[in-house]
Amino acid sequence: MSYELYYWPGIQGRGEFARLALEEAGANYIDMAREPNAEATLIALLERTDLAHPSFAPPFLKDGHVLVGQTAAILLYLGDRHDLAPRDAARRLWVQQIQLTIADLVGEAHDTHHPLGGDLYYEEQKPEALRRAKWFREERIQKYLDWFETILARNPDGDSHLVGDTLSYADISLFQAVEGLLYAFPKTTKAILAESPRVSALRMMVAQRPRIRAYLDSDRRVKFNEQGIFRHYAELDD
Q1: CA-to-CA distance for 50 and 70, rounded, in angstroms?
Q2: Taking the CA of residue 56 as centre, how many other CA atoms within 13 Å lie in the half-sphere pointing to its CB?
Q3: pLDDT exceeding 90 applies to what percent of the chain?
Q4: Phi/psi of residue 125, each to 5°?
Q5: Residue extents of the structural domains in the chain
Q6: Which of 54, 76, 82, 140 could form a disulfide with 25 if both were Cys (CB 3.0 to 4.6 A apart)?
Q7: CA 97, 136, 16, 4: dihedral to nearest 10 degrees?
Q8: What is the average per-residue pLDDT within 187-197?
Q9: CATH 1.10.3720.10 fits 89-209, yes or no
Q10: What end-to-end distance do the CA atoms of the chain give, in Å?
């Protein structure tokens, strides 16, 4: 039976973190965002009244009768089933803590272009976005990447992975977050990565994983664009 991954069509967004994990796992899945009538199908599932555990918003993963929402929960579910999380309980929890911190970073990146709310266009909140982006560039990107650099340095099993000595979904998610930052804030992020050798090395390591590389080179990888979470507006990276 195939997994079904539901997300908004045409953007990477939070759904991309789940896609990358599914690709690395070699899992059999259907990306419902690429199917006909994708948005209507997604909304119909969101509006179903017979679900005991309805999801608040996409992405969500359907595995038979199991429906899992929230990116971090989806990755926890997949990690346990596809060897993308440690078996040890303490390390398993640590991977999830890192993933939730990545989720915080993603949320803050989104708020640089929509600081007042998603109900307004970027152009309607541009002065506020300029102010929010300046703070994010000067304070937050550095703080997050420094934290990941510290985790890698303190990993007793070596600095190639965030946890232990094998790939976890947190490694894959950090790769995606850095890719997003490089797209949205290329000048700032490149400068910080130049002083973050372990994060840079992890990014390259994940990108060269055979299944990840094949996916990145395929037309199934939606390109970053100005409809997703990570958006590039030149004025926000000055």
Answers
A1: 19
A2: 3
A3: 98
A4: -135, 30
A5: 89-209
A6: 82
A7: 60
A8: 98
A9: no
A10: 48
